[in-house]
Amino acid sequence: MKTQKKITRKPSLARAKKVTPKNKSKITIECNGGFREVGNNAVILDDGKDRFTMEFGFNVSDGIGPLIPEKDVDAVVICHGHLDHCGSIPELWNAQKKKLKVFGTQATKDLAELVLYDSVKVGKLKDKPRNFGKSDIKSVLNNWKTIGYKKPFKIGDAKITFHDAGHIPGSAMAFIEMAGKKILYTSDFKIEPTQLVNGADYKKFKDLDLLIMETTYSSRALDKRNKIEKAFAEKVKETVKQGGIALIPSFAIRAPELIMILEKYGIDFPIYVDGMGRTATEISAKNPKFIRNSVQLKNAMKKTILVKSHEQRKQVTKKPCAIVTTGGSMDGGPVAHYIKYVYADPKSALITAGYQIPGTAGRYLLDTGRYVTEAVDLKVKCPMYNFELSSHAGRDELLQLVKDLRPKKVMCIHGAHCQRFAMELKSQLSIDAIAPKQGAVVEL
Ligand SMILES: [Zn+2]
Q1: Residue 438: CB partners within 8 Å, gap ≥ 6?
Q2: How far, in Å, is the centroid of ligand 1 from the Cα of 246?
Q3: Alpha carbon 369 to chain centroid, angstroms
Q4: Tens digits of residue pLDDT in 111-164
Q5: Among the four residues 133, 154, 215, 338, which has the most C-beta atoms within 10 Å?
Q6: What residue ranges define each of the domains in the chain, with the CATH number in brackets?
Q7: How many angstroms separate the alpha carbon of residue 85 from the centre of ligand 1?
Q8: What 3-state class would DSSP assign to 385?
Q9: Rounded distance, CA 186 to CA 79, Å?
């Protein structure tokens, strides 16, 4: 849901108001993206000397990026490799006269590489081309400085330290010390551990002047992970045992987690991984320090068969099995091939494992029971199940973070209900909380 009028012009032409900080001891925060909406995060911090942006993503639903800063930034800090956090860095790279420094963890760099190149490919296929090309992505990656957790780095005099955000491999919260103030920028986070990653490492932050936090699930609690994981694994097992195919459409970065869950609950049938989920699983395996249990992932991978050819794709549907495949939103990718083999089979099942974004084929399917793309229109007769294996904090975890940290001020971003959540923090916890709109400028 959009709470404000969006830019209708090309994102590259959208520029924010020029800002001249009046007082050098103050920090000016420019709200260029991810305000009162999920997606396109871009939060610019400027103390009059140092100036950088926390992330620079794009909105996956409408393809629109953040406002391009009026004045060049020194650097971009990327907290994880999802497109709504890193998807517009090449655009920023092109828009700047000043050379852009890029900071993020190794796993974030690897995942950003995967999703950025894919976004160019998907943009062309959908006739919604991105306004950058492969060479721009290459430039960004060549200038990316990889940083580990708890290893402080500097942008001018500002000091930044990454801490595990518990969201996806390599995801980070950024602790920022700037102009004598302490800021925690959470990006996307989760406190409860998942099979793939440990929970957020945030408890030791004290005396925060500002907490900039995501609020994706501010209006809804999520069930306990263990409970959802078990139910998901049981449904997959039940489907395969009764002679069907468990078709599991998955976003690439979720694939390694799904195979780990199946491994944990004891698989004794073939599991195939197809599409970009293959690469994301390999990226997770080569970044063991960013995942919770690399031995468990390796064991899961040993029991998994990677599908690498069209011929193999045809073969796998001949016997009962589980197939974890992209695209997670079902708009394209190998899932569009597999669904033809399961949609009319009552023994098979379509098992989704997360939120389906409005406007996608996956969401339309859940709402109407029909799978509609440019190529097909199928009335799905096999059973469908959705398990909400979110890698975001649920409402309870969002409140827990604020209660544990008791910051002087909270800025709620990356959510459709930011304003309501800010009001709740004010009334229930007596904390100064705000939810600025896109384009706003806030002084700290
Ligand atoms: Zn994310």
Answers
A1: 4, 31, 32, 33, 35, 36, 37, 66, 67
A2: 26
A3: 27
A4: 999 999 999 998 887 778 898 999 999 999 999 999 999 999 999 999 999 999
A5: 215
A6: 11-220+392-443 (3.60.15.10), 225-386 (3.40.50.10890)
A7: 7
A8: strand
A9: 8
Task: Give me the amino acid identity at 97.
Answer: K
Q: Give the pLDDT band of residue 15 (cuts 50, 70, 90).
A: low
CA of 344 to the centre of ligand 1 (A): 34
CA 190 to ligand 1 centroid distance, Å: 10
C-alpha 112 to ligand 1 mean position (Å) = 11
Interatomic CA distance for residues 106 and 165, integer angstroms: 15
Q: How far is the CA of 180 from the centre of ligand 1 (A)?
A: 29
The closest of 322, 316, 352 to 242, measured between CA atoms, is 322
- Give residue 55 CA to ligand 1 midpoint distance, Å: 11
Q: How far is the CA of 291 from the centre of ligand 1 (A)?
A: 16
Q: If you measure from the C-alpha of residue 252 to the centroid of ligand 1, how many angstroms do you get, rounded to a whole number?
A: 12
Q: What angle do CA 437, 439, 442 make, to 5 degrees?
A: 75
